Prior knowledge:
alpha/beta; 399 residues; 2 domains; 13 strands; Rossmann fold
Amino acid sequence: xxxxxxxENELEKQINRKEILAVYGPRQSxxxxxxxxxxxxxxxxxFLTFDDVETxxxxxxxxxxxxxxxxxxxxIIFIDExxxxxxSGKKLKFIxxxxxxxxxxxxSSAIDISIKSLKYxxxxxxxxxxxxxxxxxxxxxxxxxxxxxxxQGTYKESIIAKLNKYLDEFLQYGGYPEVVLSQDKxxxxxxxxxxxxxxxxxxxLEIKDNYKIKNLLEILASxxxxxxxxxxxxxxxxxxxxxxKQKLEILEKSLTxxxxxxxxxxxxxxxxxxxxxxxxxxxFRNTILNSYSLANGCLFENFVLSEFDKxxxxxxxxxxxxxxxxxxxxxxxxxxxxxxKSILKSKKTTKSFLSFIDKYKPSKAFILSHSFxxxxxxxxxxxxxxxxVKLNKVIEMLT
Length: 399
């Protein structure tokens, strides 16, 4: 079953442009399915994959013959798993400049790393990121009728209860398309984890021992939403701090983890050092720990971060040296605090949250929880209490 992806609309708009279209994202996020859907009614398309050793070898060792056989006879060329070519950018530039054919490429998240090659494609490529399902895409498969109400943002408590049930499943098992569509979600997630551990992470982090990768991911998963402890993590994988930072940078570029950097304006009183780390997909995080419990409030924080991130919107966190802390800060025209609670039954703010409001005086602030909805005014700030399942409306208000 095909589930409509939000990125599909944007790709449809760009399909007739002359530039190469490059779509990257985690393994099994649905890149190939999406592109094939877009191309299903196009004429004379050549579907290639660099999983095919012979095709890859021809591309790398005899580009002119590759053009003759695989490019010239077609209107559109789609190359999947582009990251397996070590010199893809230079060769794609040659094909683009000499043939004028429409080229679309996709690859695992490593495309953003291994296509150092992108320097050859400046002005010739449009890059798009496809993550796992966001909550809206998840709902489009689970319950199209409820999805319509979700998009409207106005519905009764009975619908919020239904949405919360879907949200709980989404937090437990995440948004990998194959997992969402499967009845045996844990089995699929474990297979994804094993494949990812053995192929992707091992290669991109250049860690030979599987247990070191597993230990690193387990600590990151258990500390999800916490500040990075570089000393502890360095000891775990027997490396030095700078090497660890590089590995975490690669894990972020490969869309495994997301780092949240601190927001600060006062260097003397506000912490500006270590990031907080979350996982791009909560199901993947839960599988690392082999625990799908919703008791850990960090999953709700992770949901908020992921929904913003999948729209490519950055968040920060705020923490002072006196330990005042706010989960997230959206910083555009003004810094807006966002606090996440698992359960809230009445209007309730923390000292830290009020401290941020008193210091920065934003026009609005948000407290997100499972079901509670209300508003209040504090000074110049309107505080919105919003159910997590209405996060899409919060994002609309901020952007």
